[in-house]
Each structure stands twice: as C-alpha cells, then as structure tokens.
Amino acid sequence: MQDNRVPNKISTTPLTHGERYRSVLKDKKPRVYQKIQEYLADLNSPQRVCSIDIAYDWSCNMQCTHCFTTLLQDKTRRASKFTLESLKKVCDEADAMGVFAISLQGGEPLFWGDLEDIIRTIGPDRFTISIVTNGVFLDKPMAEKLKALGVDRMCLSIDSGNAREHDRFRNYPGSFQKCMEAVDHCLAIGLTPHIHTVVTHTSLYSDGFNYILKYSKERNLGITVLIAIPAGEWCGNTSDLITEEDAKYIQKLHEQYPLLRRDITAVNNVDTGCRAVSYALYITAEGEVLPCPFLHFTLGNAFVTPLKDILAKGHRVKEFHDYSPKCLAGEDKDFIKKYMSKTFGVKDLPLKVEDVFSLDPLE
Ligand code: SF4
Q: Which of 114, 265, 323, 358 is deepest in the core (most CB within 10 A)?
C-alpha cells in the first residue's frame, strides 16, 4: 500500500503548547515520554495510533444546542456499555500499541460517580490523560483530586467569550462564569487548563471568539479551535462550515497566538494533517470505534474485536490512510458531499464503514 502521509515536518513556530506539554513528561511520566520517542522514531507505522478519545459514558448535566453525540447514542438500550473491565481491556491493548494519550469525554466526565475508578483503570502512569469538561463541577477540591490522580490536562469547552451567548448555547445559566472560575482553580494548583472552542464561518470573526483569543493569551492557555462539522445536532448544516479563506485566517492567527491550534496542526513537530486513523481514534460509550468524534462510521467494536485489528481496518480505507491537509469532516467539500452526506437524516448512527467506503483488500 502506498503511504501518502507527510511525516516529520519541523514546526517553525515558537514552543507550542504540545511541545511545552511534552517537555515536562520526561520526569513526570517517563513511560509516556518513552512511547512518544518510539513514535517519533517510527512515524509511518500503520500499526501505531497515538491518541484515543474515550466517551466512556454519555451521561451529562447539560443539553447543549450543538451536541454531536446525540445521534450516536444507542436508542434501543440493548447495546453493551463500557464497564471498568472493558475499559481495562481497551487501555491494555492501546498501551501495547504505543498509544500515549487518552482523552476522556462524554457526556460530562465530572458528572460520573465512578470517575476516580475510571482514571485508575486507564492508568495515569502509562498515558497522558486529558478530560474534556463543561467546567461546571470543576471547583478547587475537584481540581486537586484530579491532579493527585495523575490527570494532566483539563479541556474546558467554551463556546463564546460572551457569557450570555455561551450560557444560551449550553442551556445552562451561569456556566460561563463557572468555566472562568475553573480555569483559575486549575492554574492555582498547577493542573493545566486548556480551552476548546468551536467556530463557524460567522462566529470566527465575532467579538465572542476574539474575547476567547485575548483571554487565552493573557492567561497563557493553550486553545484548540474546532471547526463546525455537519454532524450531530448540526447534521446536514453545511452553511456554517468554514471556507478556505477562513482556514487561512485561522492559520494566520497562529502567528499572533502561538498556543492556538487546530486538529490538523502539527503535534510533536509532526504534520499528521487530518488525524482520523493516522493519529487518533474515538470510542463511543457502546464500544464503537470511529475514525474521529465527527466521522460517524464505525470500524468495529472494541469490546469484542482487538483494537489492532480495528486500526488495520481503518487503514484499508484510502480516505483515512492517506494524508489530508484538510479536516475531512468539516473542510473537505468533496468528502462531505460523497461520505458525510450519507449520515444526514440517519437516526441510527454510526454507519458501518464497509457500507459507505471501499476497503482495500487484506494484504
Ligand atoms: S475529520 Fe476533522 S475533526 Fe476529525 S480527525 Fe480529521 S481533522 Fe480532526
């Protein structure tokens, strides 16, 4: 199989948050640091994936307007759900495959009663652990507890720097203020806060987004800009997608805000392009393994199939195996028309990858 990935492009920007983050791992989590070195020495291995997003449980304290998980949730209530045992199986396999980063998401992880057991089962000594949160429950005692458990980074979802706008998207009065306080609590105890924010073609130029940019710079916070995707509650909505001009504008912002990144920004000095399958996977609460949270095509079920076989199947899909400089789900117009459109209006997602894509023959 021809490999069209573009490896090892050296970043010319100042120390980005990814590199800053990595530099402390050598002492703090030597096993993780070692796995990163092994990855850098063998960039093109299709047997390797670096990061896994795990939506362990869909339970959440909010009902956000743009939640992308609603259509993924099993409506029949018959599918198996993650247990600590299946989580251990998945994480043991991920560790053996060289995965070095686990991002815990939901739902709202801080809303789950068994979060401590979940973190211990993942194993903070063998992975960096990030938690994606709406911040409402992230008070100082919670931040201290998570830091002591070995969590590395708290990713706070902020939709707008305008408090009223953010609270309206979240259908949760006071949630913006809670997020701001959560950042303060994390900084006070030395747990890294990071901002996740979603932009549309319009909101990219809004006061709300500009406020988040300035705030992140003032507080020296990493910020991940996620672009609008026509999936979940935005399923089929292509009018809010960013344009090529918008993408260039975000790229330009990076000069002014070096800690700003997109999902396609080089990590560890490696330009992976779209990370789906080549760098990361996403696992739903029902164990379905998707190329990324926004590509609602399942490659297999991690509760019953070894993760390495699922990854190998992902590499048989040319669109995921090959390097793409654009976000497939939200930016690549051809991909959206040809493949994402198959999910529009479908109530029972994810679709099986083999029902939508051609798979390369087994070698
Ligand atoms: S499709 Fe977009 S969101 Fe998904 S991995 Fe690729 S760049 Fe990231």
A: 265
What average pLDDT does the segment 133-161 reach? 96
For residue 14, pLDDT over 50 is answered with no
State which of 103, 227, 272, 275 you would mutate to test the pocket of ligand 1, scoring each by most atoms of that ligand within 8 A of its C-beta: 275
Burial class of 131 by CB neighbour count within 10 A (0 to 12, 13 to 18, 19+): buried
β pairing state of 289-290 and 153-157: unpaired
Residues 214-226: pLDDT tens digits? 999 999 999 999 9
**Pairing between strand 153-157 and 128-133?**
parallel
> How does pLDDT run across 149-193, given as a tens digit for each residue?
999 999 999 989 999 999 998 989 999 999 999 999 999 999 999
- Distance separating alpha carbons of residues 273 and 6, to the nearest angstrom: 8
Distance 174 CA to ligand 1 centre (A): 31
Phi, psi angle pair for 182, to nearest 5°: -60, -40
The answer, yes or no, to whether any atom of ligand 1 lies below 6 A from the CB of 329, is yes
Question: Does ligand 1 come within 6 angstroms of the Cβ of 264?
Answer: yes
Measured CA distances, 247 to 15, 37, 215, 242, 331 (Å):
22, 31, 21, 7, 9
> To the nearest whole number, what is the mean pLDDT of the chain?
90
20 has pLDDT over 80: no
Q: Is the beta carbon of 263 within 6 A of some atom in ligand 1?
A: yes
Task: List beta partners, residue 63.
Answer: none
* Spacing, Cα 266 to ligand 1 middle (Å): 13
User: Within its chain, how far is the Cα of 314 from the centroid?
Assistant: 17
Query: What one-character DSSP code corresponds to residue 288?
Result: B
Cα separation of 22 and 57, whole Å? 28
